Amino acid sequence: MAQLLGLEGQLARLPDVAATYGPATVLNQTAKGAQNLLVRISGRRDMVRNLAEQRAKQRGSSEAAANAAGDAAMAKFDRRYGSLLVRGMPAGLPTLRNSRFVATVLYDKQGEPHTTVALIAELVVRRSGIVGRVAGVCGAISSG
Fold first, then answer.
1. Is the pLDDT confidence value at 129 over 70?
2. Residue 143 has pLDDT above 50, yes or no
3. DSSP codes joined into one string, 25-81
4. CA 115 to CA 61: how far, in whole Å?
5. Residue 116's pLDDT is what?
6. What span, in angstroms and rounded, lies between the C-alpha atoms of 96 and 105?
7. What residues contact 92, with CB distance under 8 A and at least 6 apart?
8. Quick one: CA torsion of 28, 34, 36, 41, rounded to 10 degrees?
9. 118 contacts: CB under 8 Å, gap ≥ 6
10. 91 or 74, greater pLDDT
11. What is the DSSP letter of 19?
């Protein structure tokens, strides 16, 4: 996948190319979006805990009671969002190095490229005129 992303970067630097959107770029943007979502969820979880502890202390609760309030708030948050994350990310962490994530984004359950990914790849190949080079990189990626 890194080879394909590098190839798309080379295409982007060709004269008269404003932007490239190949399968690796789409995958990279998808991974970044999912990572940003995870960061926001994690930050929200921390905020829920801190807010519960702060409110408990404002009511005069002991440190132990404030910690218990924080734990309870986090448990409630985890019950609500934990199962959604597990179902929403069946392929694991969204990174280009996670082959399960890559396969889930690029291919359907039958192993065929998702329609959008196949169309993007075809457009990149046709417009760039580097059919042999793209085919070689894609072959190396699918076999490795």
1. no
2. no
3. HHHHHHHHHHHHHHHHHHHHHHHHHHHHHHHHHHTT--HHHHHHHHHHHHHHHHHHH
4. 57
5. 61
6. 10
7. 98, 100, 101
8. -170
9. 112
10. 74
11. -
Question: How confident is the prediction for the chain on average, in pLDDT?
Answer: 78
- Where do we find the tokens 């990149």? 124
CA-based nearest residue to 82, from 42, 47, 36, 39: 42
- Residue 112's pLDDT band, with cuts at 50, 70 and 90, is confident
d(CA 8, CA 133): 11
The closest of 51, 58, 41 to 73, measured between CA atoms, is 51
pTM summary value? 0.63
d(CA 95, CA 85): 16
120, 26 in Cβ contact below 8 A? Answer: yes
Distance CA 47, CA 49 (A): 5
pLDDT digits (tens, 9 = 90+) for 66-88: 999 999 999 999 998 888 787 77
CA gap 22, 10 in Å, rounded: 12
What is the crossing angle of helices 23-58 and 115-128, to 10°?
130
